[in-house]
What we know:
- It is a single chain.
- The chain is of the alpha+beta class.
- Helices cover 34% and strands 13% of the residues.
- It contains nine helices and nine strands.
- The chain has helices at 8-17, 71-74, 77-85, 106-115, 170-173, 206-221, 227-242, 250-262, 267-281; strands spanning 22-25, 88-91, 98-103, 120-123, 128-133, 139-143, 146-149, 155-156, 166-167.
- Strands 3, 4, 5, 6, 7 and 9 form a six-stranded mixed β-sheet that branches.
- The longest helix has 16 residues, at 206-221.
- The radius of gyration is 21 Å and the shape is globular.
Amino acid sequence: MTQSTPHPQHTALSLAASGVPALPLRRGKVPFGNCTTCADNACGGRPTMKVPGPCRCPAPCHAWAAATTDPAVILSPHWAAAWRRAVCVAYHPGDAELTVVDLDDADAIAWARATLPVTRTVPTTRGEHWIYRGAMASRNAVRPGVDVKSTMAYVRWLGHGTGAMAALPDAVRALAVKEPSTARRAPQALSGLRTGGQGECPHRTPVFLERGVAMAEQRITEAAGAVHATVYRTFLAVLSRHGRCGCLTDTHVARLFTAAQNKGETPRHCTDAWTNARTALGL
């Protein structure tokens, strides 16, 4: 069950006053769903996180991007219904220049104690949050029972914890670094590769692969809205079809990134979307 926070609106105001952006969570420890205008991030997100926008929706419907330090927003009538339904409070660590290493079980905690520098620790339902000064890219499942939450992520507020907060160490930053992608390996390195052990991999047929990449470019180029979501879903589709055999080259990936950037996406967003799609597929 979700651990409730007494007086969540008051807690959010206290966090905001200390410079930590806060947002309400409903039952299940999840943020409020996007409104119609902002579904699939069609509004463009929040510009302070270098995401094209701006979004003018006044309601807390953007998960981490809804977090705010503005008391006028937290107390606004637009947020009133959310606070009536809220059971706990979350915060956006990246906006507060913080990184949270979320340790889900005893084994993860034992690994952290043997590997990471001591820092502020907050007990959770199943494990601990280790909080460091400094922001970085977020990434889930960096190892069994360990998530890293900072930019573009939210963390449930469970109190101030104990201990002095240490600076973000390289050992934590390294957790978010992906190994080189086999999806971008040159096809020359894949001679003799088979699909299901029978015959040549069909993805290596030039026409088949070219058609798939061209269709993906077209889908991104023709997106009338929700560009972020379209780019991610397109990357996910391409990788699910062509990513496991290593047939995609740097040229193919560059074409997809170029199509996305022509629609206003940043190189950073393209890289994040590609990495998140690979992670979702276990690549």
